[in-house]
Design goal:
This protein is of the alpha+beta class and 526 residues long. The protein folds into two domains: 79-271, 2,3-Dihydroxybiphenyl 1,2-Dioxygenase, domain 1 (Roll), CATH 3.10.180; 284-485 and 494-523, Roll (2,3-Dihydroxybiphenyl 1,2-Dioxygenase, domain 1), CATH 3.10.180. It has 15 helices and 18 strands. The longest helix has 15 residues, at 509-523.
């Protein structure tokens, strides 16, 4: 009977209607001939069978103690740094105001129907030149539109072979919100060539989402490839591939006429005049890493490695990071220069409580971005200003025992002796509720928010890394050999600190898990 029930469950799961996102932004004449409607992932069926007790989870992951970090310089294309994230929500204006007032971000530009766009509205929030957040909402579709009729989702996307950030179709936005709530739709990365990045990813088995599209860097006008390649033309190119779930990895690149130090303007956006882009009042300066939750970590990791060439930067198992109640497995993928870091988590099973990652996946309607780590110039001052603003809630302060253990650990690992951290910093960390960890190269200071919106899904991490200074010659070793011929000849800014300095908080996971579990129990999520 169990086998019969399992077969019936498999039949039901594989007879799902293809979602809009299976064909997102790809016109019919560009769709691969072998593209099929996305079936329910096999790993989801695996999870359901595990819950039913039919089989146990395989444990073939490498614990962090046995992991040896290497950088094979294997990127398939030239990767520079994170550029932006895009959040899709129901009300862009109120969400943007929440992030402005709660985190000190400044409104820089907007894009809506008055700017020539009728399907969505989007606001660009910024801190300096390194931290950009797009907040996008679909506008209410008119009654009787294609969205309200069967098949309207696919019809509304026909012929769209390119677009710019801040564009979301009526069906796409409505479906995304219904499935995920307020969530991150795209992770933007600046690359040497968005055309080359897209081509290499698709060649490596990636799923194309948005074909490369060129825009005039000043007017935002759509350009063809020939015009964009004219000598002296100031242009930017944008393309997208699927990262995981309904999240896109968005590539942004500039023509040789745009210097590396020049700000890239989003096509079609109008400057709002409400800020000049200088550092925010909360001392936030850029993105450190973007973490995704998936059902099957190894499948996602293998697909992204083949697609991008990113290498494994770190790996953690449930034994490294879990509590007695729940756990996770995690791996970190990194670009050659290790400025683009993509941790990936999966839930563990067979514990007394449901894994936090499983809770996320259920509330999010599948894989997605769990949290974004934001670099702070001074994390203690940032935390004080966030608390004073009173809009974004931080996780409860750790127990006193945690800081006593941390002091002993820092002394044991000679972090204090080597001058990477001092007693005053540890006292300040305890006073502000900041977590402290280290690896063999540097120190990590971190603190987390509670979920930012209604669902217990997306949250932010604030982070400060200390140590790991790079010599001036280090920047040249992180380039992608396959893309050296495409460079403009201008020297890139020298990276002052190695990516991932201080690790990813392995020593803090247990304390963090306790706080998350307390939060979930208080809110009734588990």
């Amino acid at each position: 009977m169990l086998r019969t029930g399992g077969a019936l469950l498999l039949l039901l799961l594989t007879r799902t209607v293809p979602p809009c996102s299976a064909f997102r932004l790809l016109p019919h004449h560009f769709r691969p001939t072998n593209l099929q409607p996305r079936r329910r992932p096999a790993c989801l069926l695996k999870r359901q069978l595990m819950v039913a007790g039919e089989k146990e989870q395989e444990t073939t992951h490498i614990p962090s103690s046995a992991f040896a970090r290497q950088n094979p310089l294997s990127d398939r294309f030239d990767v520079k740094c994170f550029h932006h994230i895009e959040i899709v929500c129901a009300d862009a204006r109120s969400t943007a105001r929440y992030l402005e007032k709660g985190l000190g971000l400044r409104s820089r530009a907007f894009k809506n129907s008055s700017a020539g766009k009728s399907d969505s509205v989007s606001y660009l929030l910024q801190s300096g030149t390194g931290l950009r957040v797009l907040v996008t909402a679909p506008l209410q579709p008119p009654e009787g539109s294609a969205v309200s009729s069967p098949g309207g989702a696919l019809e509304s996307r026909e012929g769209r072979d390119g677009g710019s950030p801040g564009e979301v179709g009526l069906c796409e936005g409505a479906e995304f919100l219904s499935r995920h709530g307020t969530a991150i739709r795209a992770v933007g990365v600046e690359v040497g060539s968005a055309v080359d990045a897209y081509a290499k990813c698709v060649q490596g088995g990636g799923e194309g989402v948005l074909l490369p599209a060129w825009f005039d860097a000043d007017s935002g006008e759509r350009l063809n490839a020939e015009t964009a390649s004219e000598v002296g033309r100031r242009a930017i190119c944008i393309s997208e591939v699927r990262l995981y779930g309904d999240v896109s990895l968005r590539f942004v690149s500039r023509s040789p006429s745009l210097s590396p130090s020049e700000e890239l303007r989003f096509p079609g956006f109008v400057l709002s005049g409400e800020g000049d882009g200088e550092d925010s009042d909360f001392l936030l300066r850029g993105f450190d890493h973007v973490v995704g939750n998936v059902w099957d970590m190894k499948e996602t990791m293998g697909r992204l490695e083949e697609m991008t060439g990113f290498h494994e930067f770190a790996e953690f198992t449930s034994e490294d990071v879990g509590t007695v109640d729940s756990g996770l497995n995690s791996v970190v993928l990194a670009s050659n220069n290790e400025r683009v870091l993509l941790p990936i988590n999966e839930p563990t099973f067979g514990t007394s409580r449901k894994s936090q990652i499983q809770t996320y996946l259920e509330f999010n309607g599948g894989p997605g971005v769990q949290h974004v780590a934001i670099q702070c110039e001074d994390i203690f001052e940032s935390v004080r200003r966030i608390r004073k603003a009173g809009l974004v809630d931080l996780m409860k302060r750790p127990r006193a025992e945690y800081y006593a253990d941390t002091r002993r650990r820092m002394l044991r690992e000679k972090v204090v002796e080597e001058g990477l951290i001092d007693a005053e910093t540890l006292e300040c960390a305890e006073r502000e509720g900041v977590l402290v960890d280290c690896d063999d190269q540097g120190v990590l200071l971190q603190i987390f928010t509670t979920p930012l919106f209604d669902r217990p899904t997306l949250f932010f991490e604030f982070i400060e890394r200390r140590g790991c200074s790079l010599p001036s010659s280090a920047s040249s070793s992180s380039s992608s050999a396959s893309n050296k011929s495409e460079r403009s000849g201008e020297e890139e800014e020298v990276e002052k600190q190695a990516g991932g300095c201080g690790g990813f908080g392995k020593g803090n996971f247990r304390e963090l898990f306790r706080k998350v579990e307390e939060f979930e129990r208080e809110r009734g999520y588990s």
